[in-house]
Amino acid sequence: MSNETGWKALLNKPFMVFSIIMILKMLIVWIIVFDGGTGDIIKMLLTGISSIGFIFCLIESFAYRKKFMTYLISDLILTAIYFAVIMYYKYFGVIVTYHELRQVNQVGEVNSSVFSLMDPYFLFIFTDIVALFILFASKKRFRAWSRTLSVKGKRTWFVAGQVLAVAACATAIIPYRQDMNEFQQAKNMGILNYEIYATFAPSKDLPINAEEVTPAMVEQEKGSAQPAQPAYWEAAKGKNVIIIQLEAFQNFLINLKIDGKEITPNMNKLAADHFYFPHFFQQVGQGNTADAEFVVNTSLYVPPNGAASEVYADKELPSMPKAFSANGYQTASFHTNNVMFWNRDQLYKAIGWDKYYDDTFFGKEDPVAFGPSDEVLYAKSADELARMQQTGQPFYVQLISMSGHHPFRIPESKYKMELPERYKDTLVGDYIESQNYADYALGQFIDELKKNGVWDNSVIVLYGDHQGLPIYSLNNDEKKLMKEIYGRDYTLPDMMNIPLIMSVPNEQHQVFNQVGGQSDIFPTISNLMGVSIKDQVHFGQDLLNHTSNILPQRYYLPSGSFISDLGAFVPGSGYADGITYPLAGGPVTTPQDTEDTYTRAHRLISMSDEYVASLPEWDKKVVKSEDDDKQVASSK
Questions:
Q1: Model-level pTM?
Q2: How do residues 2-29 score in pLDDT, each as one tens digit?
Q3: Three-state secondary structure along 221-284?
Q4: Under CATH, which number does the domain 210-615 receive?
């Protein structure tokens, strides 16, 4: 009888009931995201309870008339935050903040990717909310009981609780507010404390005067001054340039065989016959594919928050399309999705494409992922490129493939190989199958370009836009498959490693082993074509004339991270407690680069931010009146 009385007493104290519920939810998030030990869990409870306690004390002080429903709504909001943290971490490996709210309008387009990341047990954190709402809606006795909770307690106790909770939150936040690594900040501060801190946190950029950001200053920071007589200068002068951005294509696919079956035979042949850069890395941020387009075409870095296509689309961006247009080239972008997705219609005008081809041109046939298949992309683009070449004016174009998009579930009619049983129904297997199809479609494109005479008159550049297999998304069986592929554990640099291949007319096969990134494509192509950008601010370097590099990273790695010849560096609170992931795999080590390199990487990305912020905005009225008609290409 006393036990029953005790339970009834507990149920009549929603502060205690909902506190216990939220502690259990914090524990679920902690296990999924932070994988912490017993000591860490105790710290999680101390930091988490303070923020929860503050909210619940507010309810007890000011919302006692509708206490139960206010608790329930608070539970729903907090649970939604925890759920967003879990889902975002499973793909990006970072802690979601309010900055990512601008991505909400993209969820409808990528819902298959979102749902594929969801393990059923993630939804467990919503079970209490569903159950309580059902009881409230269907049971009169439950509603009657909930009304009995509308009792005004001793406000002084709860005000004192608020003061103590604020003090505890401040104690959790203040010691870590200067830390570079956002993931560690969230772990040390507690999720909700970190979310509050991130709302008001100052920029981590170093103080930079935008007027001092010059090509010479960038070269000094990177140690990458272009030689007076660079190798390969004008090696392809006057040729067409075709850039092919391969969706989610990672470098491990090159020369990969599974049970003797070649996965990407066309890319393998290109890597064996032309320029191949095996130590090439992504530099994208929140915008993924759209960010890759931005970085490649501007040689600038992505913004600290948000997609470049949204944050920087109002700027007069110096770019490859503008540089090539000034040298007599036609320029165009080919993408089978709608140009409005990721605000590309505005980005393309900021970058300066003469024309873009989107779903208005490609239609709706043969859908794979978010638009017509790569076969449709390449077939229709090949015809258009042949027409452009017939004008006698060289062209610079970019093709965006999409059939290899996460979650990599292509129609069975597109299967071009049979995977071993152990790969079936796994993310790794689906990924390999979709990239095998993407390679098949690419092979058809190459054949068509060779038939219509475009291939021999063009520089062809192929690279992956971003990783396809996030470490954070893989279950234990999938990690074993990746270990089978690599012969060792799959690591963070492996995830970031994408291929770069260049076919240059009259040039022989060569492997370039230096480290490179997407920001390096613009200056490298400019050198080949004899298009000078020495007076234009750019943060990449010509990979044909430099053997060392610094690649500042964002989003997929914490602030202050970078990749160099010595590995991928990730800071802790700063440089001293940071770690280096060897590029060739193996256990992490203490920092291998110097603190000066760390500081220069930090300065470079701060310089890019300040430089872009200082650029003027383009006049949308002028562009609309003069350029809209010529920018949109139609199949009609």
A1: 0.91
A2: 444 555 555 567 888 888 899 989 988 8
A3: HHCCCCCCCCCCCCCCCCCEEEEEEECCCCHHHCCCEECCEECCHHHHHHHHHCEEEEEEECCC
A4: 3.40.720.10
